[in-house]
Amino acid sequence: MYPLGLDGGRRLVRLVELEESDYRAAGFLDKHHLKQFGAGYWVDWMAVERATEAIPAQCDFIFHIGHVGSTLLSRLLGVNEQVFCLREPEMLRALARSEFAIGDGRVVVDGAPFERISEVFVKLLSRVWRPGQRSLIKTTSFVSDMAPLLMQLSPAAKALLLVASPTQYAATVFRTEIPRDDVRGAARERLARLHMRLPERAWRLDDLSEGQVVAMSWLCGIMALSEIARTFPERASWIDFDAFLQQPEGILAASLSHLRGASSDHEIEQIIRSPDWGRYSKDQRFPFGPDSRRRALTDSLAGNAAEIAMGAAWIEAARRRFAEIDEVLNSVETVYSTA
Fold it and tell me: Is residue 55 part of a domain?
């Protein structure tokens, strides 16, 4: 029974029945991608809350800045039998939006504080199919802002922080219309989230070029991930997307080691030889392997050079203006490749 929705006014939780193969196939565990499972069941919040009392909150997370291969990484790590992957659960997205919109003192179910509601859903998402497994939750990018709470609710949680250089990120976004539309659609919210981390509101969205909007979106994500790394230095591990494409075996081995201990060469070979590596991770009907990814990024860098340069200049101006930004960028510039 997968928790797909919450009606706070009626104090009901929406559950749908999924098989293990459904989790494996789904690129996103949200209402749009799970609509074929129907309306499901609406269950009283108190019954769900009581049912989770004996469930330990023990899961791990992939936090990321968006459009940096997090879905692919999740699919590949999920080849390992001990890793049960959930990609972009609907309720974590809803809770993150609620936290951002309502602020301190927020309540999304009458009488139940936000932290308790979050704990119930973290416990539900911690369930696995067999002994020896542990859930790995690949969140939506803006869920990174509530990562400190999620890491506290699962006290032994490990986190993978997936990033790319601003240039590589921009090249990925400009590669096709889908990520460009996503960045445009979320730009106002991302700018607001960035301003929340600064002493003043410094920019108007309407004044930014498309390349600057992409750069701002990258910076918003980096600021959120850096807080996770700073707060949980022993439990968070950075991954550079470009390094992942160049040396997947090493990154996969390091990721599994961080999550659950050392992995064997045979386990890594199984992952590299899996069909996931050669398919488009969000829609596996389409082939899209490492060579295709690299060629697409190279073409995008060349075709969008002017806008990418405007974005890079905007980031440099932002770090000169705000010590908070400069401090974060100084701490993370060794994480990602600038090649």
Answer: yes
